[in-house]
C-alpha cells in the first residue's frame, strides 16, 4: 500500500475547510457543510455498507447514491435577478464542487435515511482515505 503524503492531505483539508466555511445546505432546513476525512483499508473496495458503517448508521439504512453536480444542482443553479449575497453563495458552491471534482477521484454523494437524510459527499483522496463533506437534508 502506498504511503499517505501527510503534508498534501493537510493542505487539501485546509483548502476544503476554507471552501466549506459558512456554507449551508438548504432543504426544508439548513445545515452546515462539514469537511471530513475517513480512513479505510482500500478506497478501491469501498461499498455502500462500508459508508454506512463509517457514518455510524444501521446496516439496513436506505442509501441513495447520486453524483455531486446533481446533489448541488439547486445550490449552483443560476438565479434570476440574484442579489450580491446569493451570487456569492452560488459561486462558492460552484467553486467547492469544482475543487472536489478536481482533487478527488470518483466523487459520490451518499444520502442515508429518510426525512432527515445524512449526506456524505466523498471521493478518493488516496489509497486509504476518503474525503469530502457531510451535511443533513430534511425532506418531509
From TrEMBL:
InterPro entries: NucleaseA_inhib-like, NucleaseA_inhib-like_sf
Domain of life: Bacteria
Pfam families for this protein: NuiA
The protein's name: Sugar-non-specific nuclease inhibitor NuiA-like protein
Lineage of the species this protein comes from: Bacteria, Pseudomonadati, Bacteroidota, Cytophagia, Cytophagales
Amino acid at each position: 500500500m502506498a504511503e499517505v503524503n501527510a503534508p498534501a492531505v493537510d493542505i487539501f483539508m485546509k483548502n476544503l475547510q476554507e471552501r466549506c466555511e459558512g456554507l449551508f445546505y438548504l432543504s426544508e432546513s439548513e445545515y452546515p457543510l462539514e469537511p471530513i476525512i475517513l480512513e479505510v483499508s482500500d478506497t478501491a473496495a469501498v461499498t455502500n455498507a462500508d459508508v454506512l458503517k463509517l457514518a455510524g448508521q444501521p446496516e439496513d439504512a436506505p442509501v441513495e447514491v447520486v453524483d455531486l453536480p446533481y446533489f448541488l444542482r439547486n445550490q449552483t443553479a443560476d438565479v434570476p435577478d440574484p442579489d450580491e449575497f446569493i451570487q456569492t453563495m452560488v459561486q462558492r458552491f460552484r467553486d467547492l464542487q469544482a475543487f472536489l471534482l478536481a482533487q478527488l477521484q470518483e466523487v459520490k454523494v451518499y444520502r442515508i435515511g429518510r426525512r432527515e437524510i445524512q449526506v456524505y459527499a466523498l471521493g478518493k483522496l488516496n489509497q486509504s482515505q476518503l474525503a469530502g463533506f457531510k451535511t443533513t437534508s430534511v425532506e418531509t
